[in-house]
Amino acid sequence: MLTEEDRAAHLNGLKGKMKELEVLFEETESRLGELTVEEKRHLKGLASAIEYQASKLKL
């Protein structure tokens, strides 16, 4: 079981990683026209996996 301090540190780390993902998605969106069909297909699969995991976080 995590202490409150460990839990807070862990959550802050997760928030930082999620912010990095947000920046990556924004960059990807801005360059979408430059991607090949295969690259777009891979990104769509990745986005679907992320959406699935995010749906499990909803309360």
Describe, in plain words, how this protein is organized in 3D.
With 59 residues, the chain is mainly alpha-helical. It has 2 helices and no strands. The chain is 81% helix and 0% strand. Keywords: Coiled coil.
Secondary-structure element string = HH
> What is the radius of gyration?
15 Å
Largest sheet report: none
Question: What is the straight-line distance between the termini?
Answer: 22 Å
Low-confidence parts: none
Helix content: over 70%
Class based on secondary structure composition and strand pairing: mainly alpha
Principal-axis shape: elongated
Return the domain count.
1
Say how many strands there are. Answer: 0
* Average residue-wise pLDDT: 87
Strand fraction: under 5%
- Specify the number of helices: 2
Keywords: Coiled coil
Coiled coil: 11-38
Helix/strand layout:
Elements: H1 4-30, H2 37-57
Characteristics:
mainly alpha; coiled coil; 59 residues; elongated
Brief digest:
The chain is an all-alpha fold and 59 residues long. It has one domain.
